[in-house]
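re: ur question from the group chat, yeah i did fold both. here u go
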Amino acid sequence: MIINWAKKDAGLLTVSKVIDNKIVKTLFLLPGHNEIDDADWEGIKGQLLDKIKDGTIIPIEVETKKSIEVNGKEKTKKITTTKFSEFPANKALEIVEDTFDINVLKKWKAKESRDEIRAAIAQQIELVKDPKKQKEKD
């Protein structure tokens, strides 16, 4: 699940996954887009309902089209996805520009097959590593 921690001037958000009154995992959300394992998302989203309602946490789901085979014929079906690799290029590029976790960016790059997206991810990694480059870009 990709979520956007979209609060203006947001800092690091710490959320604990609790099972049977025990903290089993602590998640750190950077401002911008973050990727959370689906099981972890299910374990923490209840704590974030107020932030979801006020729009400071935005779960990202994208409607897209997927080719499927039905009775030997290829058809296009509309689907809702939360997987980065299935997002249309324009949405993927928008998310990359607002992602600041280098580990997430590297994970996406390793799985991504579209050259344009891979290049944008590589550029974002460099900008996160060296924020001075962002000023040069602007």
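okk and heres the other one u asked abt
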Amino acid sequence: MTTEILPYEMRETTDISRFENFAVPTRKMTSSERATYDKLGYDWPRIDASAQKLVYAAMVQNKLQDFFIVVFARGLNFAYATLGEVTDPRGYAVMEEYVKGMLRQTAQINATFRDTSARKMGQILDESFPEPQTDNIFRRLLGSPKMRRYG
């Protein structure tokens, strides 16, 4: 008598492109277990693609953040270098306030761009995937409309 809950075990592999590559049956499955296992195999490409999209989006967002930091730092350096060239004390005070205001405004604009890009990426991530293609012999032979295996 087995005490295992799942009729398969997760095995280490570098190829996770197919559910069957890492979820390996450990015993004969009942018909309901087989149906569940097959459904997981059918859903795996979409689940895997969702995870890959999330990782990619995080990477892109980090690159975008790095880009904004570099651009802002260049602007900051330029602004303070230019401020250092002002020799008149009265002009320096006016220019200093102007530079501070411009830098605050630039930071707010960059934050708006960052938030907009994150929102747009979120919309893209919410888009559904096309259904995985299944090889249905009856559909090929009879030319019938696509039959859904599940759900």
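fwiw on the second one: The beta strands are 8-10, 23-25. The mean pLDDT is 83. idk if thats what u expected
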